[in-house]
């Protein structure tokens, strides 16, 4: 099996170097669009997502990026030990923007799915994301300020399990498609003093759907309950900038506070991604995300991912 792992990595690298000239790595998405504003590659599981539509745009503009990341490790009589693994993650990001006079609309769709095969432990999910974000905005006379309204949706494709259980116990199911799923609607004011920074605040509504009632209590719903509505307010800060040549930082902090609960129960999502260019088709990225959502857990959730892969500009 190890020779097939090695062959997979070789094939992946060979494919990256033979892509057509239209291919483009993820780090350059904002550069491709900088004349018309920039679209960040950010973690879509957030409460909200910034999508900036430049005031120079007139009419429609679309972009579509497809990516493939992989990792492999193989050991044979290795003194330090190790476990043979192979993982692959596919992703696609589709953006649609429109502007007419002072009115703008942006659609952002982000789909990701990844699997890893671990020796003696089988196949496990490593990434899973379905997110659709819509943003409507209206520029004021001072174009640094705008009114906005967002309608967002997020869930996952596949079942997720907690594997941190005794060997004699089956992994615990903790999520599946539409369990949970989140709808959010936010209306407020945004301030964009520079093309790499944006701040916004507004009133919000959040709906949580848990189709599988066996998971209802895990996400803060009553036993057997499938739907919860929460009125509140949201704040957010977004930053995206090239720090060094071919190295870009994307960072965001977002909050949602339920007006019917104590402010200490505010949901907080802090996301950071550092993306480095290897060549015209390949990139490496480091992602660090922390989430506090006491509906799910009183402890902070942490995700850390280091990956390398290819990205193709499809549209």
TrEMBL record:
Signal sequence, start to end: 1-23
Superkingdom as given in the UniProt entry: Bacteria
Keywords linked to the UniProt accession: Signal
A Pfam family per the record: DUF3078
Protein name: DUF3078 domain-containing protein
Taxonomic source organism: Fodinibius sediminis
Lineage: Bacteria, Pseudomonadati, Balneolota, Balneolia, Balneolales
